[in-house]
Structures are given as C-alpha cells and as structure tokens.
C-alpha cells in the first residue's frame, strides 16, 4: 500500500520531513543564544551561605544565584570540566578536568578566572567535600587495598596547598562520603546504587556508614558503624548521598523506602529518621537526584526530574530554579561535515550505477564521474538500499515517519541514468509499527523479500501483496532460490539453537528444517544454479565450518567420472554449430598444411559468421534470463549434507559466484586470513582470492563481479580478486537537536519491541516516552543526553541496561601530545602510621617488582630514599612515582637488623591483576588453616572460558587430596558458562574403576571436563551478578551443596546492544531467566544463601576477618563429616563372585 508521495528536487537545500507522530518540531539550528534554558545540569553544588550554586553543563562549570536566572559560564576550556565543589569560605570552586590529558583536580575563583591544577598523578580522584578550615579536600580514589572496585576505593584528605601528602582516613571501601564540620567523623556510602534506576530492592542497594575518627581503638583504626538497617530477606533500599548539618550530629541522606527517592534527616545515636521532601506525594515516582546541603545548613539543593530545586530542610518546601545561559553557549547545534564514507551501498544489475548512504541520506553516483546526487533530505536513518531488476526503482528503509518503513524512490530520466536526474519521487511503501529490514530482490526481479520484526515477508516488486512467509521469534537471515520460488533462512528455536529452513514462497508447504542439528547453523546462501545451499555451522567447540547440501539426488549421485565425461563431450562440440572449414585432407579448399584457404565466397562467409556471432550473444543473454531449474528431493536430504573441514579456519561471510560453481568465504587457511573460494561439485583445497572480501558484498550476474564497500567506500571486485573503489565526497549538515530526537526514538522503539518483559515491569512505556522525549533536543552535550537516556531506561527497573555515547557538537580537546605522565607502582604497601625516618613496608604484593629476587624488599624493612631523595611520613609517593618516561629507580632500604642496601627496581604500570592473585592465595591459605588442610578453595572470577579453564585446573590443584571444596563466586560479574561449571560439578557417578595396584577411580579421559564429586559449599555475595547468580540458583535448586555469603544482586537478564544514529548505543535486555521450581523471574530476585551474613567493611584489609569464608569452612566441614559417615561400597572382583 502506498501511503505518501513526495517529489523532491536534487537542488533542494532544506531538510525533508513528513508529518509523523514521532517527528515533533524541534528548535531551529544554530548557536545557543542568551536566555536559552539550561536543563539537566550535572553535579550541582551550593555555596556555604546558600546564596549561589554551581554545576556542570555541556562540559563546563557554570554558576548562578540560588533563586535562578542567568547562569554565568566559569570555564571556557575544550576539556571536560565537572564535579564542582565550593571552598569552605565560598571564594573558590574546586572541580575535575581532563584538560591536561587525564582527569585532575583544579581550583579557580568562584566568579571564574584562571584555574590552578592541584593533582598531577594519573590516578583518578573524586571530590566529595571540603574541610571546615578550607585546607583539605575529602576525596576518594582507587588504591592497592583490594582488587574489586567495591573494596579498593578509599577516602583521603588532600592538602590543597600541596605541602602534605594525602592521608587515608580509614581502611574500608568508599563510594561516596561527607566530612563532618568538626572534622571528627565521616559519613560514607558502601554498595552500588543509582537513583536513576527506580524501585530497586536488594542487597546491592547502597548502605550508609559512619566512621568515627576519634575512637581510641587498640589497632588505631576508626570505628565503623552502619546507620541504615537490613530489610527482610535483604531486600534493602538505598541509603546514599550523605550530608552533614552544622552541628556534626544531624545528617541528611537520600533513600527510597516507598519507591521514590526523597531526602531524610537523621541524628547520631538515634534510629529514627524524618522525611524532609515529599516529591512522591500524589503518586509520582520521580525522585530527587544529587542533593547537597549548604555549609550553614540553611538550604538543600538537588535536581528533580530535569531541573534544580532548592529546599528548606526544616519545612521540606521546594522552590524551582529556572536557569538560562548568559551569552553564547558552548556549542553549535548545526554541524557541517565532509563525508567520504558510506554506511550502506547498492548497485544496479549492470554495476554501472550505485546508491549509498552518507550522513544519513541517500545518494546516487556512477563509476567514472563520481559526483554524488542526493535523493533524500532527512535527518533520519536511511538504510537497506536495493535497486529493482530494471534499475528504475530504488528501495530503502527509513524511520522518517516515526517507524521504520520501506520507501521507494524513482526519477524522471527516460534513459535510466539516476545521477543525471533533477527530480525524484519518494513513495512510502509500508506503514505499520513493525520494523522492516534486510531487503532482498528475488533473482527474477519480481518480488522483494524482507524481515518485519522477527518474521519473513515477501511483496511484489511494486510494493503490493505484502504477505508473511514464515513466523518466528528471532529475526532470520535469508536468501532466495534462483528461480524465486523458495527462500532459505535461519532461525532459532525455543532453546536458542539456530537451524536452516527452506520454505516455498507460495505457501504450499510448511517450512522444512534442512540442517536439523543441535548445534548452531546460520547464514544460508543458495547457489546460482539452484543445486546447492551452503551455510555456516558450529559442531566442535567454537570453530565454525561450511556445510553444503545437494538438493537433488541426481546431483549428489554424479561421480568424478561423470563430470569428466561431460567436459569431454563439451570439448568435442562445434561451438558455432558447423564444421571448421574444409577437411584438412588435401581436397580443394585446403592448403598443403591442411589449413583452409580463402576463396571468393569468404566475404559472404564472414557475414554469416557475424550473424552467427550476434545470434550466439543473443542466445547467451536468453540463457542468462532463463531461470535455473530448482529440484529439491526431500527424501534422504539430510544424508546429502557435507561438511568442508579446514582446521582452525573459522569460515564466515559465505557468497556464491554467479553460476554456483564456486563458493567464496572468509577464513584463516594455514594461518593466513583472507577471502577464499572453493569449487563445486568437487570442493578441493581453497584458493585465496583477496586479503578480504568486500563488506556487505553481493554478486552481480550481469556484471560478473562482486560489489559492496571497502572501508566504507563503494567498491567492486572481480572473481579473481581485483578490486576497484569509487571514492566520493559529500558535504552534509547535521542538526544535533534533530539528531538527538531521532536517537531517542530509536532507543525507545528498540525497548518497546525487544525488552524481555512485554509488560515493561508494569510501566506505561508510551507515557514514559512522552515524559522524556521533549528533553532530547535540549541535550546537546553527550553527558546530558546519556543522563536523559538512562533516566528513561531506569524507569524499567531492570539490570543490564544503560546508554553509552560520547559524540556531541561540543568543542573537542585538541592535544598536541599523545602521552601524559603515568603514576607507577613499586609493589610495596607501607604502614599507614609510619613515624619515620623512612616508611615501614607493611607488605609486598606477590609478583610485583619488589617481590622479584633481583629487586627484593621484605615486609618489615624500611624504605629510606628513592633515587637519593629521602622519604618519610610527609612524602607523597604518588608524586615521586609519576614519571614521563618509565625508568629504573634506586631504593635505599634498611633491613630489620639495621643494614642498609640499594635495590634497583623498575616499577610497574599496574598491580590490579596482581592484587587478585594475592587475594586468591591468601584466601586459599586461610581455608587451609581453618580446615587444618582438609578442604580446598577456588574462586571463579568470571563466567567465561578463561575462568572456566582455570577452574578445571583448580579442581586438581586446589582439590588434590582434599575432602571438600569451597567454590567462591563472590565479585563474579557473570558471563555464560554456568552449564559448563555444572557439568564439572555434577558428573554422574555410575561406575568405579581400578587397575592392579591402583586405588579406586575413573578414567579422566572418558569425562567431558575435569570433575568434582565430593562435597562443596558455594560462596556468593551482593556482587555476584548475572550468570554467577544463575549458577548460585542452580546449585541450590539441584541440592549440590549449601550456599554461604550474601544474597546475590538480582540482576539476571541476557543482554545485547542496539546502535543508535548518533554513534551511541543502548544495552538490550532481551531474555529472561526463571526458576524451574517456582517459575519466578531471577531478575530482582537474587539467590538467597542457606546462611547469609555480611562481612565487615574492613574484611579485605590486612588483619581483617572474612566472616563469610570462616562460616563456609565450618559448613563444609559438617557436610564432609556427613558424607564420610555414609557407608562405602566395597569392590568385589569377579574372582570372588565365582567362589
């Protein structure tokens, strides 16, 4: 059905659009002007007296009166400036900027002016607060105190004058923090929460803690006390963003006990809290973000939805703050670009003309002149270009109408030359909510195949008679039979196994499963002669191979001799239908050598030859037009599937040469990656055609070549691999306001169509679109747009979500250097209370430079100097170890006995991986100690094959001679290998073997993996995520062992990703996981261990106690004792049975 018709001039200069429900009007392009509203300000902060505010917006720092009005831009740097904090007296603003190449802390006057860089190392720091005397910043940064992000960050006081080294306040992980006005206490946040995600309840919710720095404890450490409480079954809500009142006893924080983030007030020594704000009153679930309190306690500042509001903390009354930009803004919404790359390419059948998408619009061009002519004038995403068989129509998909539909372009040129046309007519072919994709013309040119959402469709070439060919839940890839009567496609079943199907276009029979295999088969292609279908299949491990089926029995039954016989008979035929002149037998007309002589009738003969030649060419054209006969013998077809084996080749991108006698593919053959071909019907050794195939390639039968693009440039390739590219340049304009709207729509539609829960977590997805979409055009900065997108996605309260994107029209940091100074690590940890002289070594990280024999430093020794410069408690080691060029350093070290020596050492870039290894060894040693050597320990770092292979090794290494095994998936972020782990842990025990002189056992080479059948305990915690949670649920469901630790996060959805027009992407949660026993969704339903307990915040520090580990050892010891108490089977040899 044709729904819209638009005539365009190639000389048009405006932006083409059609009326649509999604394409609402947006502001005019151009520079930001004075008075334009500022929306979604980032990282707000408030002056000590509560009269002014500052915030980040479009990568700069801005300031405004607390009542709103015009905001003044304080920084004008192309670098990204963020996280402003007022000094204690309000005269300065501290902020973070990457203007030097790395994120560093800077300070500038509160009214703007030159900025001074305070930090100079390569470790990123976050500013949280300022001390009351203005001397110190409360910051946090990652350290060597733990390997996981949740345990490695520490709170420090940083001297703003640079005269003292930064000082760690207490030894526990910190996510956010606030320093009390009297400097004696720190409120800090642990856990992982974001107010952007609405309604999360679970153990990962942020916790609020108090660190009392004045405590006179025996170990000299601060006393840490948790202020919020656990809910039933640890379905906790967040307590985050702590703020101190001036009395250092009253505090404020953000929490969502009713599902809406509000501000609450608490007092030390009391469990009671008072709700300050009531933004959820009336049923709204839009909470507050990023709260801060003025130093005098008079005013709270926060963001509600898209704008800042102030609040009286006594009454809870909110006052909106409207902000506008004073002077020119930071960006130009209208971007002009020269574009030389195409994202989509199509050629006419003769290969002489091409169409491509550049800068989101469609252009046409020839091979010689190469002057592109623009067909569409939209800011929307055009794709899937396809010429009709006669080259008179050009089809494509576009979301101009608000949904992705098929459009048709035609021109008025009678000669068929697109690039000479002045006017083009566009017709909308489809109009529905479905997403049309993957347009493909039938070989006879009469039909177009395409996918709509997940189904396979066909329509007549003119767009009529649109009909569904096959229904499925997963979008297929497909190909036509050369006679246009069949289609072959791949699709997944309910077990996500992909198979190859063939189906007649006329619907006379049901789809037929051609591959019928439990391993993945995909990407089918039909040969040009109609005899074969090839596809890629995976059978052994991860390697893919080519599979080919002979569709007709007769073709499969042909022998090599049959092929030779055909060739021999062909060689004997007279190609021109007659004899080659007179016989070479000495008769008239023959020369002495038997060659025919010219005679008087030669001119007439030549004329006859010309006529014959012309007729032959016409016959060849007729032969090309004839549709190949496609014969499919379904009986015994599975036995005719052959596998082409080339070791470690990983074939992909299959494409048939025109006549079907050669199959092209990408592969690595004998270690060399390239584009190869193999002949049929007797495939032998592949022949390399080129270094790589063209992208999105297609074979043109008439032109006898491949066409596609190479590195984004339209290109053609001969059957011998000769490649020709067709470079171009177009000048395009992009209005980023429209661009943002389109990207928003794409993300919203993707979730509408593919989010795993069709009820959208009981949210009105259309209403959510209406709430957020008007803001999209106002978010020119990447940070603001990403914030908006994540707010929209957060409405679904789902894991595995998020928007990423850093493209925007803001000025870019133009650095002339490709390096910055780097902070290195010696591998030494020093005692926090070293009194000097020197620094006492607390521990040495195994595997680090100072653990090596040639540069060994031992715990308890004292580091006195580095390269001749004395070090002590007042030394900033980070500053010394920050170097422009890595070099060897000389350390002056004093042993415990008082002897001094020089150690030459070359520092390392990072110790992150070494910290993990250290934790594993220390934990393994602790299990050895607690169990008196009877139990083993292994940790699965991720649900990936690297970790799984390590687990297999550890089953022997850590389990050798042990009675039980502690298996730890704490801090495991997930992956996909649960079933492999279960295979190793649940191998059926059906027999016992024993050779003469050996003990009882079972042949390891008969098993799939190394296995473990003795008792286990599985450890999990709130940072066990996704596939690690699936494993935890599985162990509990099947009763393989008991679980100890903490309830898992409740984040279990299989995810993919969807790319957006602006270069960003959104993650796509597309598959839910449900418990077998109850049918309950694992999402928001973390696995509850049999024994649940928290570790203290200092558990991972030297001297800290891993209470969860101790409990796991205790539980496993009980289970081992119970297992040993069971009677054992005594082996009875046959010789004894015969007695």
From TrEMBL:
Keyword Transport assigned: no
EC category: hydrolase
Signal peptide bounds: 1-24
Protein keywords: Cytoplasm, Hydrolase, Protease, Serine protease, Signal
GO cellular component: cytoplasm
Coiled-coil regions listed: none
Region (Disordered): 509-529, 571-628
Keyword DNA damage belongs to the record: no
Pfam families: PD40, Peptidase_S41, Tricorn_C1, Tricorn_N
Residues annotated as domain PDZ: 810-871
GO molecular function: serine-type peptidase activity
EC number, as in UniProt: 3.4.21.-
UniProt-listed GO biological process terms: proteolysis
Major site of localization recorded for this protein: cytoplasm
Compartment(s): Cytoplasm
Compositional bias (Basic and acidic residues): 600-628
Annotated catalytic residues: 800 (charge relay system), 1026 (nucleophile), 1083 (charge relay system)
Similarity remark: Belongs to the peptidase S41B family.
Function: Degrades oligopeptides.
Record protein name field: Tricorn protease homolog
Organism: Saltatorellus ferox
